[in-house]
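Before going further, learn to read the protein records used in this course. The integers have meaning only within a learned vocabulary of local backbone shapes. The record below shows the convention in full.
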Amino acid sequence: MKFRLFISSVQKEFAKERRAIASYIRKDAVFSKFFEVFLFEESPASSVTAQGVYLKEAAQCDVYLGLIGARYGFEDAQGMSPTEREYDTASAESRCILVFVKQGTEEKREAKEAAFLKKVESERVRRSFRSMGDLKDTLAVSLVRFLEEKGKIQDKPFDACISPEATMADLSVRKMRDFVRTARELRGFSLPANVPIPKLLTHLDLIDKNGAIRNAAILLFGKKPQRYFISSEVKCAQFYGAEVEKPMADYKIYKGDVFELADQATYFVMTHIAGRIGTHDGETGSAPTDFELPRKAVFELIVNAICHRDYASHASVQVMLFPDRLEIWNPGSLPRGWTVEMLLRPHTSLPPNELMAMPMYLKGYIEKMGTGTEDVAKLCAKNGLSAPSFAEGVDFRAVLKRKPLVGVSANGDLKNVAGGGLKSGLKSSLKRNLNATDRIIIAEIGKNHLVTIPQLQERLSLSRNGIKKALGRLRVVGLIRRVGPDKGGHWEIVGEGEI
């Protein structure tokens, strides 16, 4: 939605300037994207009075642009000109007021125009111009400043920019109190547990000198960060096959602050991969758990994607789990001059969102030394996995290779699946855990290897997607397979004698 710019002046005196300003803004590559101009002389015929039209526009505009010269203009029954009424209306509505005074009109200036100018000068800063070129240049500076204040353009990192509509009420006091406690325990954070919230935010540079909220504060401690930054969510998906295609085994969209997003996305991955639970400790009641992907490695790559992404992008972080790999995509790029090869050897830390990085370090989510990707490689090597790989293109991607499909046998040990089939112990375990839908589908395939999805729909009273999802689940665990193309092929049960 564009900002409404209202041009106010004595029409006859500034007819040329009014048309030139409107044309300049409408043709400019940048300003035309952000502003639409209102000129009273372009208004269509209406039953509403002229005063009703221009005062309504002045009250609803985002930017009031006033031109003051020699003439005061037409006066209404109360002796006030439309220009001054428009100015008063916009001022009363707290609109952005820009006033430009034409030089060389001082000696010819009417008394009421001089009084109007004096009033304006007592209330706000005004600028002077001599030529149309001067006016365009001065106006451009003012409009750029307006767009910066509105967060539409920026000359600083995204996380350091002001979130113009955000207030302290958008931040969670509970989250900030929890942060201080954790930061004190983990990193020896210097501020006391009961530090006043404004002082905490100032210390972390999350508000400016006027108390305005920076984007980083919303992303770190916001009650509902996606209210301001829709794409800051994380999308997690599990796929049956090696490609991005439907149906999906599972799909979640997570919302929340950056800490919550990292925790939720990591939980998604860890609950969708194979694991082994060891012997319970009689004293503590806990049991060691091994996963096919090290949790610390998964967590590190997800946190990196959330912390280092480009938050100005409309894309989201995506966490995608395939049978053979985990891929984490984020809308971002490496620092200028860096290559993906540098990530697996010692390198400096250059986070694009520096204001976010410090609190994430203080809470123990990242390290500040640039060792994260090296640590992931070491964890992979320790667990018998290949080193992570990285790729940069439209987005940035990190990939962790999974071990061959892993299942849990009857005695609880992890067993690798070889040659596309399942060990007999695992097959027995899966058979015991089949649900009613799975059993019926396998039975129907056993009776008719050419059975179709519509026929299965009729037999089970499920949607097409429901049948596809069930078939995909049985395929990924290796109980059935498709031989030939979707049209003209047939189903087979893997190891029918064991099922």
